[in-house]
Design a protein that fits this description.
By secondary structure, this protein is an alpha/beta fold. It is built from 18 helices and 15 strands. The strands form two sheets. A 13-stranded mixed sheet has the order 1-3-2-15-14-11-4-10-9-5-8-6-7, with helices on both faces. A two-stranded antiparallel ribbon has the order 12-13. Adenosine-5'-diphosphate is lined by residues 55, 57-64, 455. Magnesium ion is lined by residues 61-62, 323.
Length: 519
């Protein structure tokens, strides 16, 4: 982390005015805030350092840290989020200077905006899966999204990770088989709907000479174990692509005739922004899809870095701004990527509400390693996670204070002893006030930073005005919808026509006010 007061000086530049060249700070890193305790200047995180933000809902993760970082990122950005409001806040700014913005919006939260102010991200999960390596990575990314970031970790999470791995064997086989035979997502969905009856994928893998060797066996093994295991595997496979079983979601995300797949490499090359918009919904999680798309975007960035004339680095860097990581895109590769790719021009900032969420997603060891590998850890107050607060307090260590004691009487005198006390006690970590956060950066001493909220000040008001203007354009929920009663009546008429029900069964009485909707 860099602390700096005024302007950064060019390497080798002397203090003399003539040699000083102003380097635009946003090209070097993003600003966390000001050092408050101990007092000091501005705190900056260089783009080649990873950052993790942990704080409860409403503590300011998005507005105080992730959005400011995103707004100042000089290059392309991958953004995962759960709230359309957060996207509207940064969208206008991120489209300036002719930079493209695209959004993956499975639930139609940005309807009215998507396709007009921001491009729709269309992506074909099968594209590229003739390559078994791609098929395997994609399957693993999709299934990783089925492991939920539950608030409390438990044994259920281990089971979820086991079935995610089993389901990945099936998914990789399906993606590969579909790509080998030019089949579409719809064919894959047919297989996924009833894996034990689907003989095509096995047949393709067995007979096609370009098919990866032994995958036929992997597929057969995963689907034909004991009943309970196979049943759970199949359920997980179906969860993996669950979102796509809704036709309107499929239409919003997948290319179709006349709607070409988004050229993500081009968006990255032009310094654009890729928003992946999910939502917090335990019934219809977008995590599998969002994780797979996020992995694909990062792999695309990595491929561009390899071709780059800047010695294998992406310059300016691609920022992965992973808000609400556990409920948006729990990337299975995050830890490895953070370790290897930050030096290649891929920058990472993630946010989660608790450490326990990360543990239930990645497991104890892996989440510990993830937090350990994070260069700059920012913690908000308000967390009731006693164990984590204790851990942070232990991490900060102790300081030695001198203690004087006076004794009176015959042998009276003064003794001085040293006492070790915690730099920050666990309850003090919880009591950090709003607009402040504890910053633990690499080998530096801990600092309490005073943060700036991106919606404050003149620039903040402009952001809010832009957000307001875009919000007016949202048409979600304002469309003409056919009432459920009307649909029920129409469905019953069709059922009678097909002879699925007896002709004398009558439709339920329409609710008041809806009479005549259809007739
Ligand atoms: N438009 C707004 N105007 C004023 N306050 C807001 C606005 N949007 C959010 N806030 C407040 O800012 C705080 C931080 O929000 P946010 O950064 O979204 O929290 P987090 O991402 O940690 O859940 C919240 O307490 C929220 O109530
Ligand atoms: Mg947030």
């Amino acid at each position: 982390m860099i602390r700096h007061e005024t302007s950064l000086r060019s390497p080798g530049g002397s203090v003399g005015r003539s040699r000083t060249r102003r380097v635009e700070s946003r090209n070097v890193g993003w600003r966390i805030g000001r050092a408050h305790e101990p007092r000091g200047g501005d705190l900056w995180v260089p783009w080649d350092r990873t950052a993790g933000v942990i704080g409860p809902q409403g503590s300011g993760k998005t507005l105080d840290l992730l959005t400011p970082a995103l707004l100042s990122a000089p290059g392309a950005a991958l953004v995962t989020l759960t709230k359309v409001e957060d996207m509207l806040l940064s969208l206008t700014e991120r489209t300036r200077r002719d930079r493209p913005c695209v959004v993956l919006d499975p639930f139609g939260l940005a309807e009215g905006i998507a396709g007009r102010f921001v491009g729709e991200l269309l992506w074909d999960p099968i594209a590229g899966c003739v390559d078994p390596k791609i098929a395997e990575r994609r399957a693993k990314a999709f299934t990783a999204g089925t492991v939920k970031g539950a608030i409390h970790g438990g044994t259920g999470d281990d089971a979820a990770r086991f079935y995610a791995a089993e389901a990945a064997k099936v998914m990789q086989a399906y993606f590969h088989a579909a790509a080998l035979t030019g089949k579409t997502l719809e064919d894959v969905l047919r297989w996924v709907a009833n894996p034990q009856a689907a003989s095509d994928p096995g047949e393709i893998l067995r007979r096609h000479s370009h098919a990866a060797a032994f995958w036929h066996g992997l597929l057969h093994g995963a689907l034909n174990g004991d009943d309970r295991t196979a049943g759970n595997t199949i359920t997980t496979v179906q969860q993996t692509l669950g979102l796509f079983f809704q036709a309107d979601i499929r239409k919003r995300c997948v290319p179709a005739p006349g709607h070409r797949a988004t050229d993500l490499a081009e968006v990255i090359r032009r310094g654009g922004t890729i928003y992946l918009l999910g939502r917090e919904d335990p019934y219809a999680s977008a995590s599998p899809l969002m994780t797979a798309v996020a992995e694909h975007v990062l792999d695309t960035g990595l491929a561009l870095a390899n071709q780059s004339p800047w010695g294998g680095r992406l310059c300016p860097p691609l920022l992965a701004c992973l808000d609400e990581l556990p409920s948006t895109a729990p990337l299975p590769t995050l830890r490895t990527r953070m370790a290897n790719e930050r030096a290649l021009g891929l920058s990472f900032i993630y946010a989660a509400q608790t450490r326990a969420q990360l543990t239930s997603l990645f497991g104890e060891q892996e989440s510990r390693a993830l937090v350990g590998l994070t260069n700059v850890l920012v913690m908000f107050g308000g967390s009731k996670d006693v164990a984590f607060n204790q851990e942070i307090s232990d991490l900060l260590g102790t300081t030695r204070v001198a203690r004087k004691s006076h004794q009176t009487g015959h042998r009276g005198g003064r003794t001085i002893s040293g006492d070790d006390i915690a730099i920050l006690r666990p309850e003090e970590v919880r009591q950090l006030p709003e607009h402040q956060a504890l910053v633990i950066a690499e080998n530096a001493k801990p600092i309490i930073a005073r943060l700036s909220r991106c919606i404050d000040g003149k620039a903040g008001h402009q952001l809010q005005a832009d957000q307001h203007r875009l919000r007016e354009q949202l048409t979600t929920g304002r469309r003409m919808v056919i009432t459920p009663e009307a649909r029920t009546t129409a469905a019953l008429v069709e059922a009678k026509r097909l002879g699925l029900v007896e002709a004398n069964i009558s439709a339920p009485a329409p609710a008041a006010g809806h009479e005549g909707d259809l007739w």
